Amino acid sequence: MSAQGLFDAIQHSALSDAISKLDHLFGAVAQLGHITGLVLLLSSIVLVNLRLLGWGLTSQPITRLATSTNKLIWSGLALLAVSGLFIFIPAALIYYVNPFFWYKAELIVFALIVQLTLFRWATRTDEPRPLLAKGTAVVSLALWFGVGAAARVIGFLN
Predict the structure, then answer these.
(1) For this UniProt entry, which segments traverse the membrane (predicted)?
(2) Which of 45, 87, 106, 158 is the most buried (most CB within 10 A)?
(3) What pLDDT, in 10s, does the model give residues 80-90?
């Protein structure tokens, strides 16, 4: 099955039909859930990355800050994924032809790879190597804010 065929099947599924028949309030709740997930994810990532850059919360140990925000990061990501599915499923073919949907998907993959590797390495110790800490922070911020920017452009092109 081609990617377009998969997206067509998703949009014409029973789940898509059920979501489409829900009250418009459900769509608004899904959008609010998506925004809330984005705020949880980005605010937590920004806090830790600013600390890695040495620009904020310098009195807080990096390991403690990373541990404290970890649940918020993954809760935000889970909320984004679930609400995003409810937004995506009824309009899958619209997303399929939108290049910014694909940019967003690629950026999410790269951001998660950085989050699960470099970010973890940089926040394992309270005294990470400066190049690792600053490089990780810059790359992480660029990727996650790139995801947000691509998502915003998707909304303008739909």
Answers:
(1) 32-52, 72-95, 101-119, 131-154
(2) 45
(3) 999 999 999 99
